[in-house]
Amino acid sequence: MSTHARPLAVWLAAAPDAQLAALFEARGVREDAPWADFFDAAEALLDTGSIERMLPRLTLAEARALRGAVEGEDPGTEAAALLALALLRPDGTPQPPVADVVAARELPAEDDLTDPLPADERSEARAAERAFTSVGAIADLVLLAAETPLSLLTGGNLAAGEKRRIAEAGTPAEILDDLVAIAVAAGILATGDRKLRQTAAGEAWLRLAASDRWTALAEAFRASLPRGLRTEDGGWLPLSRWPRQHPWDPAWGERCAAIRARATLLGLVTADGTEPQWAVPLRLGQRADATGLERMLPTEVDKIFLQNDLTAIAPGPLKPALDVRLRGIAARESAAQASSYRFTAESIAHALTTGETAASVLDFLGEISLTGIPQPLEYLVMQTAQRHGLVRVFTDWSGSTRVSSADATLLDAMGVDQSLRPLALSRDAEGLSSRVGRDTVFWTLTDARYPAMIVGADGQPLVVDRNPVPASEPPAAHGYGALIARLRAQQGPDADAAWLDRELEAAVRAKAVLHVEILMPDGSTRELQLEASGLGGGRLRGRDRAADVERTLPVRSIRSARVVDPASE
Asked: Which residues belong to any copy of the Helicase XPB/Ssl2 N-terminal domain (predicted)?
């Protein structure tokens, strides 16, 4: 057992609970760590493996300060952070095991403090176009996730099938994981159960103007940057310094490249590494200013052309709120500065299912159309609306799901439809019944293109969200309360006695040779070397090596004990 653990154990016992929780989280301690007391905690934190796992998390400044402390220098302003990580002792010197681990590690040369070069007009224009394209692609992801949660791999990346499907719509597959990371950092998408879902914040974000969408993403990107890239004023370091900011992390190169790629997607850095004007306030820790970016973005429009072939053409980027609603009524066929949309019976039925009515659809299209509403489109909306709700799904008094319709032929068709077999529909005089839940029956019928509608007990239509937005929850904090309480419960008033007990127990388990100092009844002291063999009843048993006899010593009489290094004998 290391003698270095004792001072750290005393320091841990005196630290506030909040400081302990922060230390445990930073050091990656498991909430169910099998520690009995603070001595166990100190031993674990000073274990070489634990220290080696911590060093990659250190920033360049912290690593240099720690190396300086190992070499006898003052750690300076980083001393408090390193002490809080239990890498330094209160006097500013490194914990002895830390010195051994750090000594073999290299550090990069001094930083170049030069600010990034400003981008020229052409580079800024390309960065603005890239930012505009990325924001639109993220909006597409949010809308897709709202319709049906996207599947994720175990590592958190999008599944290959999802990437292929999205890439077919125009977004390159190789940037999808970075776009997802940007959206998750902004809180507009959330992961869970290997699914990617829209959040309530994402629903609101979709209705923001393009520049406001970008501002929200850029500020969230800055807030999510690792400690090593952040400055004291809340900004970030020049990108040229990023690759060196976590010098002892072997995975940092790959991680840093991914972060830079996301900055490029957001137009915060150009392809040649220069800095657009709208990135400067963010780098300096100020609020984002999208004024310069807005001047380079295409003007948003609020009108469309409706055509007789059941398509709509937007002559420019449609305002986001209008685009979101239009895509709830029509399927977007192409995404560019001039987008096209197509109306189908299925798209109109989907809109009616989500709460639209024939009147609300026609009123909306009439407001934004530059060409009025073509007769074929009006006919499609009215015909779909008349047919919608022909099949009514509800729960009866017994809890069973019922399916009714005024069209008996339609009921007969559903009863023999092979795609509906999982519902186990049974026919009776009043319609169909199923033991499957109401919502599942409704969505299965809708997917099979039956004009279904959910109705409540009063017979009125209900709007049911197939994939409701999950309630926003604060990030789960590490629950170190139970662990800290267990350590506190074993905390006695006499740390010296507790430490002595641990030393004796460890020596007995290892059958080690102890050098003990005994307080005699007359007040004098005597030193013995014992081969420890047992401990119990407040007494230590062992063989006196000098006299070659067995001795039993009261523990209360032992003033100190240390293990004798066999190599020193």
From this structure: 305-427
What CATH architecture is 495-568?
Roll (2.30)
DSSP letters for 457-521: TTS-EE---SSPPPPP-PPPPP--HHHHHHHHHT--S-HHHHHHHHHHHHHHHHT-EEEEEEE-T
pLDDT tens per residue, range 472-516: 555 555 578 888 888 887 665 555 566 666 666 666 666 767 667
Please state, in angstroms and as integers, the Cα–Cα distance from residue 345 to each residue in 316, 376, 388, 450, following that order.
26, 12, 10, 11
Note the pLDDT tens digit of each residue in 21-34.
Answer: 999 998 988 888 88
Q: What would the pLDDT profile of 416-472 be if each residue is shown by its tens digit?
A: 888 888 888 888 888 888 888 888 888 898 888 888 888 888 778 887 777 766 655
How far apart (Å, rounded) are the C-alpha atoms in residues 527 and 323? 87
Task: Classify residue 369 by its DSSP letter.
Answer: B
What is the distance between the terminal CA atoms of the chain, rounded to a whole angstrom? Answer: 19
Contact 419, 449 (CB under 8 A): no
Backbone angles phi and psi of 152, in degrees to 5: -120, 155
pTM (global) more than 0.70: yes
Tokens of 511: 């059958």
C-alpha distances in Å from residue 457, one per residue of 321, 393, 396: 34, 11, 8
Residue 191 near residue 156 (C-beta atoms within 8 A): yes
Residue 38 Cα distances to 96, 160, 480, 490, 497, angstroms: 18, 47, 14, 8, 14
What are the domain boundaries of the chain?
5-102, 121-296, 305-387, 391-450, 495-568
Distance CA 480, CA 475 (A): 15
